[in-house]
Design a protein that fits this description.
Length: about 200
């Protein structure tokens, strides 16, 4: 991702590029990542926090899966619910499994945050060279700054934020957008294995 975003200079306005995890002509994202829920959440986080205009394919929020093989119909199945012969109604929490609800709520939280915070749909982007499996970028404007951190390692990492001082200067606290947990120390970020964090910085 770092290498791809580093080429944004070739576009007149990369903020207008459409981004996606999957669509009706592609294998579904969950299947592409081997049904790995951690990778699924990392992908969702990237799509809903990076620059550009996210295109969302129906059903990804409830963990719909499949490959195009043998036909595209495999990735274009009906969304469960609303049809007479549907055994489950995935439009409701009661009709979804515990894991599906976890995915749905994760997507809803990030999508709602993006909708209500202009910094994620019109703010600038600054990324840093990934180090030791940890990738960091910021979405920022004059009014707000958001730090996005992804740990691709199989173990927890304690990330020193010293090299991000250009973007963190002037901020003293941060709140985790997903968990709503407040941190009063921005000198480091504790990163669970194979996870992403979206942190709104607070002055």
């Amino acid at each position: 991702m770092y290498q791809v975003l580093a080429q944004d200079i070739v576009y007149a306005d990369p903020m207008k590029l459409v981004t996606s995890l999957d669509n009706h002509d592609m294998d579904r994202f969950l299947s592409v990542v081997g049904e790995d829920f951690s990778k699924y959440k990392m992908g969702v986080t990237l799509l809903l926090t990076t620059r550009g205009i996210p295109s969302w394919y129906y059903g990804t929020e409830i963990l719909m899966k499949n490959f195009k093989n043998p036909t595209d119909a495999e990735v274009r199945q009906n969304f469960p619910g609303g049809f007479a012969d549907d055994q489950n109604n995935k439009f409701t929490a009661n009709g979804r499994t515990e894991k599906e609800n976890e995915a749905f709520n994760y997507v809803r939280t990030l999508a709602s945050y993006r909708k209500n915070n202009a910094v994620l749909h019109s703010g600038k982007l600054m990324q840093y060279v990934p180090q030791e499996g940890v990738y960091v970028y910021f979405r920022y404007s004059n009014e707000k700054s958001v730090m996005v951190v992804t740990n691709t390692n199989d173990n927890e990492q304690i990330l020193s934020t010293e090299r991000f001082s250009e973007r963190i200067a002037g901020f003293s606290r941060g709140i985790n957008v997903i968990t709503n947990q407040l941190s009063n120390d921005l000198s480091f970020v504790r990163l669970p294995a194979r996870s992403s964090q979206v942190i709104e910085l607070i002055r």
